[in-house]
Amino acid sequence: MKFTINRNELASSISTVEKFVPSKTPISILTGIKFSAYDDFLCLSATNLDMGIEYEIKNESDKLSILESGSIVVGSKILSEIIRRISENMVEFNSSENKVYISSGQFNMVLPCFDAMDFPEISKNNSLNRIRLKQSMFKDMIKKTIYARADDTTSRPQLTGALIDYKDNILNMVALDGFRIAWCYEELSETETSDISEFKTIIPGDTLLEISRIFEDDEEAYFELYASKNSVEFLTEKFLITSRVLDGDFIDYKTVMQIKPKTTAIVSTDELRLAVERASVLAREGNTNNLVKFNIVENSIEVQVETELGRITDKVLCSTEGEEILIAFNAGFFIDALKTIFSPEIKLHFSDETGPCIITALETDNHKNFILPVRLRGDNP
Amino acid sequence: MLPILHVDMNAFYASCHQAKDPSLKGKPVMVAGDPKKRNGIILTASYEARRYGVKTAMPKWQAEKLCPQAVFIKPDYDLYLRTSQKVMSILGRFSPQIEIFSIDEAWLDVTGCERLFGDSVAIARKIQAAIAKELDLLCSIGVSCNKLLAKMASDMKKPNAITVLTTEDVPKLLWPLPVNELFGVGRRMAEKLKRMNIKTIGDLAEAPQEFLEKAFGLNGSYLHLWANGIDDSAVNPHSMDDAKSMGHSITLPKDITSFDDAEIVLLFLSEQVGRRVRRENYMGRTVTVTLRYASFDTITRSVTIFYTNSTEDIYNASRKLLYSNWDGKTPLRLLGVSLSNLVKEFDQVSLFDNEDKKRKLNRVMDEIKDRFGDDAIFRAKLLDDKELNERKLKTR
Q: By its UniProt entry, which PANTHER family does this protein fall under (chain B) (predicted)?
């Protein structure tokens, strides 16, 4: 295998691909990136067996020229650190036997490599169930929901991912950990299409997080999502990401999130967030679990904290409707949710002291945050 | 004025048994892990046993050799805890300013109590008398101007003694002592100090503060102050209110070499930890597992979960830690489980109603155990096959 490649092209492809290299693995070959040179393109791949990527670079005069096809696997860590520090324009790779010679200007390096035959296939599901979507839209949905997923100590592993639920031209994304739910949905635009009428799948949170980092903000960048029973694929012009999916049931989020509000408040997102953040400074230092109380009275939300370290009372003016309510929450849950809302004003719906608070942007309701409270007891007024 | 008292119960565990069962009085009594099983260590030896050279933390077989006629008793932590509470409530009669340091030690600040009970030494005598009369237990009391010196003083004469230590006594009484006897100096630190040619508390007092700070960080500057008998920390009645962690560990009667056996021990420990945390109305979010191999190499591994005090959650987290940090073969001699990052118990509403059920189940099991004893109800996993079969036979 022999090729020369533009330094920037190489650096940016490695930085994308290396996100899929596991940081800890008992299988040493997985610490590497596979380089496969074909006649007209070069493919970089990496996998941690849960998710993998194939990144393609086309043979173009000033970007890449392939002199000899073949494939090798090179440890990613040293390679990536070196390429970042190369100042010349072009880098040459030349492999023979189990070594790769990398040179650029006066720089020369020899690294051992693994046999590419031993590298696992980035498995493809060959599904024809395709949806074409905007990268920016999908990325945005991930950012709005992923915070609410469960961590990996949950007894329900499916909750470490997010549910993708597509039906009737509407794409829903939902994450929940049992105490809160984040749900958003988008209607497909004219340039977005689907070959299937409906499908549901649970994608691991780690996959989605990587995707939200790699996908572009460009409104014109699209990708295709292929779903099958055991895996999903995300195909863009440059790369293909595959991921396993999670088995298990997801709670019927639409029903759970339908409540009859007893109390409603409309409030400035920033003012409420800042008040809760201030309260949380004291609440999380104290011996309570970041517990913050909301006393919602006519046209204001009083935010209260009381711990052994001190007391805070704060007031956010707002417009309210319905009954007064005193309710307590984990402040962290509230802050997480409020940070995902970019609308200047929000609506809060409360059913009762032990029921959820549902937070939505004032103008749209396609992003809902659902947070369950902490029961207040007699000894903790 | 020497307003600080440090009360240290003498041979506490062994004395609790002697007080409870007068037939043990005057006999060498040793509290050790299950007396029927091997490789226990001596938790406490009564003063009668200490005369034969038995020391705390000595292996049981060695103690047996030194004092073959000794009575070995299995630890009864409930008894110690109840007795400890009685001791602390006696102390509470003399001053409201009590800082409980451990199950058998506490500091009192008796400032302002002289009018009622006399000077510090008179108060110490009254405390000793009350504890002896009501609980049939002995204690040593150190009297000084600060917590450090009071603690050092209570250690100087045992049992049943009152020792007064003033700042003026520090050069004469404290400085000749080996450095490891200073409060806050552990075995490792003592070794490190020894290598710096600091062997006595006096050597430490003379060592420049900057030098100690460089070697031990913040602790170094404390060492310097303490070696000079200086300590301005207040007796804090609330120091125990916010426990940082609660844990249990067990030295296994036989080294464990399978996941099945280890899981049973983890569940047993998780139950103990959970019960204690629930009793104190706390919840914690960090589960730590301690593994000590037969080689005595010890590792601890932690994981953070959502706040809990349920046995199941503690067990599940500790089991995960076990599986990711142990090969299931290397012999284990000790297992420990602890829960830290504790906060006051709270009742987070959950989407899944089994969270609520789990909580209620734990509470009910605790109540049954409190009323009818620890064996009245337990998880079936804790029955090893032999016991399970015995129980089956009984019920038939």
A: DNA REPAIR POLYMERASE UMUC / TRANSFERASE FAMILY MEMBER (PTHR11076), DNA REPAIR PROTEIN HOMOLOG YOBH (PTHR11076:SF35)
pLDDT tens digits, B61-118? 888 888 888 888 888 877 888 899 899 999 999 988 898 888 889 999 998 888 888 8
B8 is in an annotated binding site: yes
Please state, in angstroms and rounded to a whole number, the distance separating the CA atoms of residues A94 and A104. Answer: 12
Nearest to A288 among B303, B304, B346 (CB): B346
How buried is residue B361: exposed, middle or buried, by Cβ count under 10 Å (0-12/13-18/19+)?
middle
Residue B239: its pLDDT value, please?
66
Residue B11 has pLDDT above 80, yes or no: yes
Strands A180-187 and A367-371: antiparallel
The one catalytic residue among B105, B280, B345, B355: B105
Residues of chain A with pLDDT under 50: 379-381
Best mutation target among B349, B353, B355, B358 (most A Cβ atoms within 10 Å) is B349
Specify the amino acid at residue B258. Answer: S
Q: Do B348 and A330 touch (CB under 8 A)?
A: yes
| Residues of chain A contacting B343 with CB distance shorter than 8 Å | 287-289
Whether residue A248 lies within 8 A of chain B, CB to CB, comes out as no
Instruction: Say whether A372 and B351 touch across the interface (CB within 8 A).
Output: yes
Chain B residues close to A25, C-beta within 8 Å: none
Tell me the per-residue pLDDT of B129-169, one tens digit each, with 9 for 90 and over. 999 999 999 999 999 999 999 999 999 988 889 999 998 99
Q: pTM for the full model?
A: 0.71
Closest CA to A217 of A130, A131, A129, A142: A142
Residues in chain A with CB shorter than 8 Å from the CB of B317 are: 153
- Between A22 and B215, name the one with better pLDDT: A22
Q: Cβ–Cβ of B344/A287 closer than 8 Å? A: yes
Q: What is the pLDDT of residues B118-132, one digit of tens each?
A: 889 999 999 999 999
Residue B187 has what pLDDT? 79
Gap between the Cα atoms of A161 and A234, Å rounded: 16
Residue B105 annotated as catalytic: yes
pLDDT at B34 over 70: no
Please give the domain boundaries of chain B with CATH numbers for all domains: 1-165 (3.30.70.270), 169-227 (1.10.150.20), 245-395 (3.30.1490.100)
Pairing of strands A32-37, A161-167: unpaired
- Block residue for tokens 């209620």: B360
- pLDDT mean over B259-264: 90
Interface test with A, best of B286, B345, B348, B350 (most A CBs within 10 A): B348
What are the angstrom distances between the C-alpha of B302 and each of B314, B319, B325?
11, 11, 11
